Design the sequence.
């Protein structure tokens, strides 16, 4: 055996190769991290704009996102205390609005919590305690409120944004940006023909309860949306997530507050 084939030499070469490769991989991850973060935020802002009817991904380019999103103010709310967090509270919680991503803290007990089975109408198991909401206001008059929503469909959790008019009651739009539903069936929740059914519908009935329902068959009036045919289970998931997120345990009280006293 030549000295080139010795066990020691083989181990040294293998080890050096591992070190070099790991440096390249971790170096690339570090270099690409700011780009990934920027893309994640771009994507989120695009989805918020889409829900509010301010961005059409078929026609509009990414360069329009920053300018259009600049009219939104971002707030973090506390779902347990039902209040909008001020700067001091955000600092105490170490939440920096610019870098905060509520999807990334879903397993962190400081920022999220497990839901009891009977309250978990949307079947999400855990929820973030401090979600971000996005508001457009002119001279203190609220024009648009966008809230994140999520709920289990047939194959997994659907994530989206629901946009409301300034009355915190009339739907402006709904856009799902992540789902595992079947293309052509449950994934039709993203079909513009279906999402076009949402604007103008009302959330709360006269008693102040969530009156909006996704029903099997043809919906009518202010409070009904047609379920997707062939995708009743996904439609039920969307119905459940509306009942949960707009209800008393989630955004209901905050939205009532915004409606009555503004920000
Ligand atoms: C391969 C496969 C994928 C399906 N994907 C979905 C889906 O994503 N969402 C859904 O609601 N139903 C889906 N279904 C259909 C459901 O099993 C169920 O039949 C349907 O939700 C009933 O809707 P309907 O009462 O409107 O016919 C799928 C069925 C099969 C066989």
Sequence:
């Amino acid at each position: 055996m030549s000295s080139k084939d010795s066990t020691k030499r083989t181990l040294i070469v293998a080890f050096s190769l591992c070190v070099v490769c790991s440096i390249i991989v971790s170096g690339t991850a570090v270099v690409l991290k700011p780009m990934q973060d920027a893309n994640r935020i771009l994507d989120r802002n695009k989805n918020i704009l889409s829900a509010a009817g301010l961005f059409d991904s078929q026609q509009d380019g990414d360069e329009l996102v920053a300018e259009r999103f600049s009219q939104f103010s971002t707030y973090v709310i506390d779902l347990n205390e039902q209040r909008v967090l001020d700067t001091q509270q955000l600092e105490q919680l170490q939440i920096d609005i610019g870098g905060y991503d509520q999807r990334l803290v879903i397993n962190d007990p400081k920022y999220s919590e497990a839901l009891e089975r009977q309250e978990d109408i949307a079947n999400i198991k855990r929820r973030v305690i401090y979600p971000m909401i996005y508001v457009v206001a002119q001279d203190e008059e609220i024009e648009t409120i966008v809230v994140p929503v999520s709920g289990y469909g047939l194959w997994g959790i659907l994530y989206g944004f629901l946009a409301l008019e300034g009355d915190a009651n009339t739907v402006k739009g709904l856009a799902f940006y992540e789902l595992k539903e079947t293309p052509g069936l449950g994934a039709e929740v993203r079909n513009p023909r279906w999402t076009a059914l949402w604007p103008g519908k009302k959330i709360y009935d006269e008693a102040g309860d969530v009156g909006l329902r996704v029903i099997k068959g043809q919906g009518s009036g202010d409070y009904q949306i047609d379920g997707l045919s062939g995708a009743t289970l996904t439609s039920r998931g969307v119905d459940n997530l509306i009942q949960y997120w707009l209800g008393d345990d989630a955004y209901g009280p905050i939205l009532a507050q915004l409606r009555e006293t503004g920000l």
